[in-house]
Amino acid sequence: MINKQLHIPIMLNEVIKFLNIKKNGIYLDATFGYGGHSKKILQNLGKEGKIFAIDKDPESKKYSNTINDSRLHFIHGNFSKIYHYAKKLNFIKKINGIIIDLGVSSPQLDNPKRGFSFMKDGPLDMRMNPQENITASKWLLQTKENNLFKILKNYGEESYAKKIACAIIQQNKKKPITRTLELSNLIEKIVSKKYRKKHPATKSFQAIRIFINNELEEIKILLKNVINILTPGGRLLIITFHSLEDRIVKNFINQNSNQKIIPINLPINETILSEKCNFRFKKIDKINPTKQEINTNKRSRSATLRIAELIK
Ligand SMILES: C[S@@+](CC[C@H](N)C(=O)[O-])C[C@H]1O[C@@H](n2cnc3c(N)ncnc32)[C@H](O)[C@@H]1O
Q1: What is the CA angle 257-304-51, rounded to 5?
Q2: 206: Cα within 13 Å, side-chain hemisphere
Q3: Please, what is the angle between helix 161-174 and helix 145-156, to 10°?
Q4: How far, in Å, are 12, 17, 42, 97, 229 from residue 47 at the CA level?
Q5: Does ligand 1 lie within 6 Å of residue 245's CB atom?
Q6: 117 in a domain, yes or no?
Q7: CB 56 near ligand 1, within 6 Å
Q8: Among residues 194, 240, 282, 301, which is most buried (max CB within 10 A)?
Q9: Where in the sequence is the domain holding 206, given as residue range(s)?
Q10: pLDDT in tens, 97-140
Q11: Comparing 64-73, 81-90, 271-280, which segment has the lowest mean pLDDT?
């Protein structure tokens, strides 16, 4: 059944403005979700325009079927396979603008059956695509304590990572953790609420989710390929929700843009000179949601939108 709860698209007007939509252009929504950005792009496109939309979640695929518009072409799969899709569907170097809105959608978060929520009880799953890989619960049962510690530390920046990893492994030896609330209650006993603005399980849930969905690798592969699919002058728009994602995006844009910084003490040689000239993107802007948007949609509060343009 299609989940009726809708996702409120983040910085929708800003996305449309910076995509600089050409009436008959071709656009890519790499994270379709519940089509918030795609539908608005469609409204701004002419008859000959087209939008390719990707999402790995089968629920997004179902939702895309409810949009009756021949200009929308939905692809069910991982955005890291973008080059394969571009070759198959003939859009290499043809895309006028890409929107990548990272993270999870509201229906994924709010439906306890998906296992992303530390507030509502459900199976400890956390897969954006339940048809692939293993559930968070199964992974926690088979991972080693040191590996779990590293994931919590690196992907959650969790200062209690060691204690939490130890508690999870010990609990799993007694009785496997299979429910979201079992995990969040366990973490709540370790992380003091006094020192946290957010729920004590926020960072651990984020870390496990990033690992289960291979999120950071997926982003890196997608970014490497955007150069192959954008047409010169095409725009790249990326919305991130936490510092790990944003760092990857920021570094990618910096390394490929004309604002590359050469350390002061590095001798200038031929390689440096050619690298410096080999920039492919022009930085356009970096923006955050307005206070008004944050007031109406709390989930937008940690979002950052970065915009770059492929040089002609
Ligand atoms: C924040 S939501 C996008 C919401 C969408 N912009 C809207 O307005 O409805 C992020 C979406 O990206 C999808 N996603 C995340 N990582 C993905 C990946 N590696 N490949 C394909 N889809 C991915 C998730 O399944 C989720 O539906």
Answers
A1: 75
A2: 21
A3: 140
A4: 22, 20, 9, 17, 22
A5: no
A6: no
A7: yes
A8: 240
A9: 134-212
A10: 999 999 999 999 999 999 999 999 999 999 999 999 999 999 99
A11: 271-280
